[in-house]
Amino acid sequence: MDKWEEDFLREIVELDTNSDEKKNYTECTEVIGRYCEDAGLKVSVHDSKHDGINQPNIVAELDSGAKNTILLCTHYDVVPAGDEEKWTHPPFELLVKNGKVYGRGTTDDKGNIVACVSAAKELINRGSSKVNWKILVSPNEEIGGEWGIDYLINGPPKIRGDFAIVVDSGPSYVSIGASGVLAGTITINGTQGHAGYPFKFNNAIHLSIPLMNEMLGYSDRRRKITSKLPAPPGSPYQHLWGRFSMTMYQAGSKTNIIPGKAELSFDCRLIPEEDPKDIEEDIKSFLAEASEAVFVDTDIEFKVRLHGWGSDPENPFIKTLHAAVNDAVSSEIPISADLGGNDGHYFTSVGIPTACYGTIADDSNFHGIDEWLSLADYENVKNTLITFSEMCK
User: In this model, does residue 61 exceed pLDDT 90?
Assistant: First the structure.
């Protein structure tokens, strides 16, 4: 990472752009726009202003006069720093130490922004790119993307390309798909009353215990659902598989009150081939049978519905990207799909084949304390993008 890149990263990391407060968005895009223009890119800004808050999206273009255009998807919003006292250095100051760069957003995803712009700068200097680029730099990714990539693709800008790379992923494999998500809450209905008279009331906590045991059976059912897409390296199964987890539990208000209600939240991961509507009905049906089996009255509410997505591994752009990673990084890096979800579905939903590659290593503390970016991974991602653009036909 040279001084220009380090200065670029420092300026945007120093701006707290957490997705909860949505502050410094305009200031951050001004910095990014300035560095993009300095790199030789044409910059346009599309503000998806929502609830009175500016949420500017940048489109930075490299026009090589080629027939094909590649979309590079990145984002500048970050998750909150959390307990800043637990950081070993201030989260919104850049620290370069022992081959790592520390700070909130360094790897997720501001380092990837810099890698994209720096790669474009190098391609412009060489005059060697065989494709056009549109670098999409958005807010809102950490909370769903509605006013970010969704806005650029499906809103008034209607950005289009021949292939998309989500530069917001890990360096250990090239991802060609991601899991869908269904999340919600099951309410266990009991009756509230005085804890001195437990025999008079239906304790929602007590009722929920056998129900949760029944719902473990749904975890087993989901585990048997498998995708045609390969799972990431180190996974317990060869192919992406379905998952169901109970993730939060809330009940009670005082020690001397029998709770009349308990809430059990869940997260269900779908393989790319599944439709969330179908799995929603399956969960409802399983819950109804489980509730009847243990004599519990329940309700269910779905709060998150996201489609998974997958691209054809034989797509020429995907094969070229994989070859570029093999050439620039390692010949042992495989093609896989993600266990989590990401913005790729916005592209595939409008017919744009998509893959993911980026700097977000599993151990980089992204979303955690002392987030860091590996300088080696940074260089690998940048060089991969350059190699890919020079290899395209």
Answer: yes
